[in-house]
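The pair is quoted verbatim below.
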Amino acid sequence: MIGIGPDLVTPLLREPGKACRFGAPDWELLIRQARRADLLPRLGSLLSDAAVEIPPFAQVHFTAAQTFAEAQQQEMRREVKHLNAALYDLRLPLILLKGGAYLAAGLPPAPGRVFNDLDILVPRERLAEVESALALAGWHTTHHSEYDQRYYREWMHELPPLVHVRRLSTVDVHHSILPLTARSRPDARKLLAAVVPAAHLEGVHVLAPEDMVIHAMTHLFHNEELSHGLRDLSDLDLLMRHFGAGHGFWQRLFERALELKLGRPTAYGVLAAHRLLCTPVPQSALLEAQALGPRGLARPCMNVLWNRGLSVFHPPTNGWLTGRARNFLYVRAHWLRMPPLMLARHLFFKAFIARPET
C-alpha cells in the first residue's frame, strides 16, 4: 500500500540533518505525514536551517505550506485587531492563548504555526458581557442544541465556539484552562493576575512564561483529540528550549505547577518532550518531573501510551498498537474531564440520543 512506512517527522524534529539520506519515496511520505500533523511549514524551516538539500518536487510543497502559514498569520493579526475593537468598551485586557499567544509574543513556535481559531481568556464573571460584545461585532454561537449549550456553559471551561458571520473566523472564549467538572481545577484568577503584555501585538496580553508552558502541557495531556498531538509537543519543545535558557525557569515551572495543582500534566510534558524530541532539561528538573509523574508499573505503561499517542497522526503509518493507545488516551481524557456518573450520561446521550446539527 502506498504511504506505509515509519514515522519520519519525529526524528527530523530532533535532528533535521537526517533528511540528507532520504530518497524520493521518503520525501513523499514525509510530506504526507507532516501535512497531516500541521507541521509541514515548521519542518520546512528546520530543514532549511540545517542546510538540507530538498528535491525540487518536495520543495514546492514546503514553500506552499510556508506561504499559506504566513498568510494565515496575517489574517490572525487582523482578527486580533477586530477582537480588540469589539472588547474595547469592556476595559478588559485581550489575553490570547496557545497559537495566538505564540504569534503575539513572537515566540519560537510562531513561525510556520498553522491556526484553526483564536483562543482568549476572560474572567468567568465577565463572560456574559464578553459574549454580548462579540455578538454585536458579528461573532455568534455554534452548537445550537440545548444539550450542547448546557454542556459548554455549565460544565466546560469555555463557551461554545463563536464564528463570525462574514469572515467565518472562530473564537474560543475560555474562562479557565480545564473544565469546571474536571478532577483538577486550577484557579484561573491566578493565571489572570500574572499575564504580561505581548511584545509583538499592541493591546494584547499573554500568560506568564511558566503559565504558558503549563497551559500547553495541560491542554495536550488532558486532551481527548490527539490528531495534532505531535505539533503541540513540538510547540512545547520550542517553548521549553526558549524559556529554559532563562535563569530559574525550571524551579519556577514546578513551583507554579504545584500551586495550580497541575503537577501531573507538567511532569508528562517535561518527560515526553525530553524523551521524544530530546528537549534539553536539567537533571534536577527531570527528577522533579519523575517524582510528580506516575509510579511503579504505571510509569512504563504510560510512557508507551504517550509515545504511540503523540506519534505522527497518519493512519497508513500508524499500527494496531497506536490505534489502541489513542483509544485508551481518549477514554482517559474524558475520565479526567467528568465524574463517572456524569461521564456515563454524557457518552450515552452523545452516542444514542444526540443528532448531528445541520
Summary: The chain has 16 helices and seven strands. The first strand starts at residue 94 and ends at 97.
